[in-house]
Amino acid sequence: MSVRPTLPTADDLGRTWEGVRSRSPLVQCLTNVVATQRTADVLLAAGAAPAMVDNPHEAGAFARVASAVLVNLGTPQDATVEAKRLAVAAAREAGTPWVLDPVAAGGLAWRTEVARELVALGPSVVRGNASEVLGLAGGAGGRGVDATDSAESALEAARELSQRHGCVVALSGPVDHLVLGDEVVRLAHGHPWLTRVTAVGCSLGALVAACCAVAEDSLAAAATATAALTLAAEDAAARSAGPGSFAPALLDELAALTPEALAGRAVLA
Amino acid sequence: MSVRPTLPTADDLGRTWEGVRSRSPLVQCLTNVVATQRTADVLLAAGAAPAMVDNPHEAGAFARVASAVLVNLGTPQDATVEAKRLAVAAAREAGTPWVLDPVAAGGLAWRTEVARELVALGPSVVRGNASEVLGLAGGAGGRGVDATDSAESALEAARELSQRHGCVVALSGPVDHLVLGDEVVRLAHGHPWLTRVTAVGCSLGALVAACCAVAEDSLAAAATATAALTLAAEDAAARSAGPGSFAPALLDELAALTPEALAGRAVLA
Amino acid sequence: MSVRPTLPTADDLGRTWEGVRSRSPLVQCLTNVVATQRTADVLLAAGAAPAMVDNPHEAGAFARVASAVLVNLGTPQDATVEAKRLAVAAAREAGTPWVLDPVAAGGLAWRTEVARELVALGPSVVRGNASEVLGLAGGAGGRGVDATDSAESALEAARELSQRHGCVVALSGPVDHLVLGDEVVRLAHGHPWLTRVTAVGCSLGALVAACCAVAEDSLAAAATATAALTLAAEDAAARSAGPGSFAPALLDELAALTPEALAGRAVLA
Predict the structure, then answer these.
(1) Positive or negative CA dihedral for C123, C129, C132, C133?
(2) TM spans, by residue (chains A, B, C) (predicted)?
(3) What is the ipTM of this complex?
(4) What residue of B is the nearest CA neighbor of A253?
(5) For chain C, N or C: smaller number of CB within 10 Å?
(6) Can you say how many angstroms the Cα of residue B121 is from the centroid of all Cα atoms in its chain?
């Protein structure tokens, strides 16, 4: 996928979402053990096909045939980190788009080193919260998986990462910032319960990968996935009693979200 | 458990389901990290007792005391594959029934080799979709965990596997085929949302294992588990808004399904 | 945290719960692969911040900055057991409270040895069912994760463990017994569906850890977490159709439970 300086429109997002529905991209997920079930459920609800292939024996071969690859650095172990490296190398050779989610980068030494090694290999998209983007860029890290820095404060770090590595940076927060070089697309959909359900951010990374497999460019892919998940969250919150019932409702609404509804409701600023 | 050429009746299924309820078999699950929580929830809803013992230090010893063992090949790692081998060896020695779920066999080289090694040891039941059964039997594999071949096309492969290894093959699809030698039992219950929720097939494998612990034979066990899950799916879909709310409803309905209702509603063809 | 001989009141429980809400303790969870998602969801619903850092490279460093640490012995593997040892050592040095959940202790040799090694290091709280407490104390173990011994029969073992290691023992069952030396606090809230949803006991261990981070003492922490989860269970069961819908409702009710409601409803005997 090439990057383009022109910004995606709401119609582009609708078309990308339609592509996920109709082409059912096969998304290889090398992710953490907390997020596996919810990530797979999100991909299935969206119409994509998840495959959690994260061992060193198979990860590289599978990255050559997958439609896209997600590399999430949560709960790393020696074998799964080796598998992530092999998957990235194979994805690069095969031209498979891949997404990096640097969970807790900056806050923990080992994974920060791995995250910086991988981002230098040029993912299509980096997805993280403010703390993680700051940590990956070299700033002070957060206290783990939750964001303690505001999205705005990390915007400069996102721009720098994007320019240095040629990738889109999807900076998650109350306002989502999708950054490509000097360009920024903002989306302000969603609901606070998104932060009260585990692995939603991780699932968003997988959904970005699914969109990368069918989108015209990585910026449209990141924007489509972000808009789809946050619009579905608005619908789900409206009919939920709390964060527990919100989680299955989010899957229902993601499955029910049409390309037309996404294009009609997404506000890009 | 011995196999018999006579086919199970709906009443046999009801009796097997009653056995799961009243005897609460202890099912050792060596399964993938995506499916663990949902698999355990399905077993608990059915009245069985799950135990996820999948390390090489303990897997063999536990297989000697478990009521049944599930060996699922998703997300294999070196240590868990070693544990699966030890569990199978111990189950065979102790006469514990065991079920093989060859996730993505045929599509990925390492696990295909492991799957073929294990199926040759004679599981009570092999459970898989069409791609996996074809892949295990030596045909062309699928693209991962979802079925890209029709159940019918895999029926011949299932027959061959059954005859070669003396096991029942539970071939999942829109119509479920339960194969023993030349005999086939067909069940056509269920709902498309079963394919939009992750790990339902994996959970079915565990439920087959639970039924193997109490059934008169492996064919009745496979038919009981399949009928229970797919009938519960029909009930769950009727009161769900999408695949998200369908998943917890499936557990509710599985817990509520009586032996009488199962025997009265299951249509075996 | 020091222990005190005076028993917590319902008002103490309300204050501890308020502390979890307002201070959002960072809880490092080294837990099993079945329980990760539900455990994180429970902590988020309660207002705490989960971080599943369970590899040997990072576990020790993180235990020095975490508010509390949960060490759960389910699904152990060599690397995660090493990480648990390192986390406990670091927690002790840093004075971080830590909770031990000896899943299936007594029933499986390897983890029983690990559990006995760790309990001798003086956790703030040990949480387990009757079989596990008996198994840890040296009695006959159960058949896995479910309790086959009554809470009362394990009370003497709990007292002995508490006195020998200076820890609170939270003995889960239809009546929960929170034991410190010769003192026992009893709570009899809850619902049978708590035993039909996987990883609820494991999640309770994590919630105990969250409460340890903010409570005046470990006994109040164990009582607060137990009361919160079991009172939320009563509310959730009242509006659920079965164990499937009970699980998300439990999270809703845990999120909705106010410190005032907890203090007003908890009956300590």
Answers:
(1) positive
(2) none
(3) 0.94
(4) B242
(5) C
(6) 17
